Amino acid sequence: MRLPAAVALVTGGGSGIGRGIAERFAQEGGRIVIADRNLAGAEETARKITELGGEALAIESDVADAEAVRRMADRARAAFGPVTHLVNNAAISRGNDVETIEPELWDLNLAVVLRSVFLCTKAVLPGMIADRRGVIVNIASVNGLFGIGEEPYSAAKAGVINFTQNVAVKYGRHGIRANVICPGTIRTPIWGDRLAEQPDVFERLAAWYPLGRVGEIEDVANAAVFLASAESAWVTGVVLPVDGGLTAGSYRMSRALVGDSDSG
Ligand SMILES: NC(=O)c1ccc[n+]([C@@H]2O[C@H](COP(=O)([O-])OP(=O)(O)OC[C@H]3O[C@@H](n4cnc5c(N)ncnc54)[C@H](O)[C@@H]3O)[C@@H](O)[C@H]2O)c1
Hints:
Layout: E1 7-11, H1 16-27, E2 31-36, H2 39-51, E3 56-60, H3 66-80, E4 85-88, H4 103-131, E5 134-139, H5 151-171, E6 176-183, H6 192-197, H7 201-206, H8 217-228, E7 239-242, H9 251-257
Helix pairs in contact: 1-2, 1-8, 3-4, 4-5
The structure holds nicotinamide-adenine-dinucleotide (NAD).
Nicotinamide-adenine-dinucleotide is lined by residues 11-12, 14-18, 36-38, 41, 61-64, 89-92, 112, 139, 141, 183, 185-186, 188-190.
């Protein structure tokens, strides 16, 4: 067991990566609070955990709403005691072109992706400070590291990276660690619409990844367990790409430089 005595709050735990992290944390001994706008998804995750003998609570919550987040944190505390581990994972991505994105859509992305991380962190910090321990794992994206479109989502993810670094340096003295994972393409339900339009999207994207495949939920969950556990006790403020080498550089470009015509 790598997370004994953990009380972990996983936002967006009703689907995809959040569900995978919730299940892994439960297997490692944590009691899990799953907060999601989609209650049915959160309950399904909780059911899977309890079926395997774990403890979990599903809460319906919009993590962009300050009052809803306060209520969510209160319910989590009432059920299992102070939250020791926070995984800020819930997100949406809407809009992919500055010329067509309306200000309201920009604000929606910023609220769900970035404001939510601030709100949830603010809600659990006092308990972590009082306990002199706490672990925060934020799920950003490679989109926050360089320009590959989805402007509002990507700008918000860049904000999540910087926010995590500030939390790490300000609250380290209280025994709190904060790190951020930047996944590359991960096979989850978030890809549903694009997959319906382009059934071979993962195969085409795989060609960009040095490791020759897109990621799986377990790839991110494994990194999250490491960052949540005592194995990373002296790791804070780290930006960890879990991206099959995507942001390490471009083999395609290096081949083009030497005139390799097969560089595509
Ligand atoms: N899948 C990928 O390729 C990929 C790549 C990089 C980063 N990420 C990041 O990983 C995280 C998880 O993504 P996923 O692929 O598992 O997506 P997903 O759509 O499968 O799951 C996201 C969950 O967040 C919930 N959610 C959305 N808005 C919410 C809100 N306002 N309040 C509460 N819950 C809300 C959804 O209901 C859903 O259950 C996100 O932060 C995403 O940006 C995903």
